[in-house]
């Protein structure tokens, strides 16, 4: 019988445990796959001195399981060794669309100070070209209409998500983009006034992809 998407997520969550560096601060992403990863992590809690979390959601789950969660500002120059997070889509160059769970800004910040980004995803997330999943863009609320118009000018169909981020901002979801050059689009949207973060992780993509498939977990590096 075929494995469910949740079972595939659980498999990659388990496989990610071997990337945790004992004794080092761990970066933890957000989402249903990461929730399963946090549950698996509980078995090696004594090896994780502290975590930096990318959302209130993950912080609560980590703390409920007895992990210490520190603010990124408490971290020294050493940064974070490994950051483990999911994705909504990932392409062959390891560029990703992220932010389906609304945590894209903090995810991008934590990823930016991490040496290795390990992406954990079920097989449905692997695509040839990004854009089937609507691209999330976090915006300062007063800029929502202006940024929406600019995204529409690129050919997207844009909806304002009924959601407020951990940073008190809004999210626009831009559907219908075929993203052939993710780095260029990330740079362009980042340059628009009012944009906090675009959910394209291309300039700093993943380093390792653990993909949950029917044939087992595949590792791409
Ligand atoms: C949250 C994210 C998640 O990593 C992404 O939405 C994947 O989520 P899930 O593991 O639930 O499929 O970017 O902002």
UniProtKB/TrEMBL annotation:
It comes from the Bacteria. It holds the Pfam family Rib_5-P_isom_A. Keywords: Isomerase. Substrate binds at residues 30-33, 85-88, 98-101, 125. Pathway: Carbohydrate degradation; pentose phosphate pathway; D-ribose 5-phosphate from D-ribulose 5-phosphate (non-oxidative stage): step 1/1. CDD domains: RPI_A. Its EC number is 5.3.1.6. InterPro entries: NagB/RpiA_transferase-like, Ribose5P_isomerase_typA_subgr, Ribose5P_isomerase_type_A. One of its GO terms (molecular function) is ribose-5-phosphate isomerase activity. It catalyses: aldehydo-D-ribose 5-phosphate = D-ribulose 5-phosphate. The active site is at residue 107. SUPFAM superfamilies: D-ribose-5-phosphate isomerase (RpiA), lid domain (SSF75445), NagB/RpiA/CoA transferase-like (SSF100950). Gene3D superfamilies: 3.30.70.260, 3.40.50.1360. It is an enzyme of class 5 (isomerase). Homodimer. Belongs to the ribose 5-phosphate isomerase family. Catalyzes the reversible conversion of ribose-5-phosphate to ribulose 5-phosphate. This is Ribose-5-phosphate isomerase A. It comes from Sutterella massiliensis. The gene is rpiA.
């Amino acid at each position: 019988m075929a494995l469910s998407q949740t079972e595939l997520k659980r498999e990659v969550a388990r496989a990610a445990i071997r990337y945790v560096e004992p004794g080092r601060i761990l970066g933890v992403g957000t989402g249903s796959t990461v929730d399963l990863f946090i549950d698996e992590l509980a078995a090696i809690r004594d090896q994780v001195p502290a975590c930096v979390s990318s959302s209130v959601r993950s912080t609560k789950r980590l703390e409920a399981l007895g992990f210490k969660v520190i603010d990124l500002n408490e971290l020294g120059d050493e940064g974070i060794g490994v950051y483990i997070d999911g994705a909504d889509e990932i392409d062959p160059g390891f560029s990703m669309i992220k932010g389906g769970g609304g945590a894209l800004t903090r995810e991008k910040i934590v990823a930016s100070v991490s040496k290795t980004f390990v992406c954990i995803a079920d097989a449905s997330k692997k695509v040839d070209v990004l854009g089937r999943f609507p691209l999330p863009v976090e915006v300062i609320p007063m800029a929502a209409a202006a940024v929406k118009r600019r995204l529409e000018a690129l050919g997207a169909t844009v909806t304002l998500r009924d959601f407020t981020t951990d940073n008190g901002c809004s999210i626009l979801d831009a559907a219908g983009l075929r993203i052939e050059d993710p780095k260029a689009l990330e740079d362009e949207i980042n340059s628009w006034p009012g944009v906090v973060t675009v959910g394209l992780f291309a300039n700093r993509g993943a380093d390792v992809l653990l993909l949950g498939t029917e044939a087992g977990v595949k590792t791409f590096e």
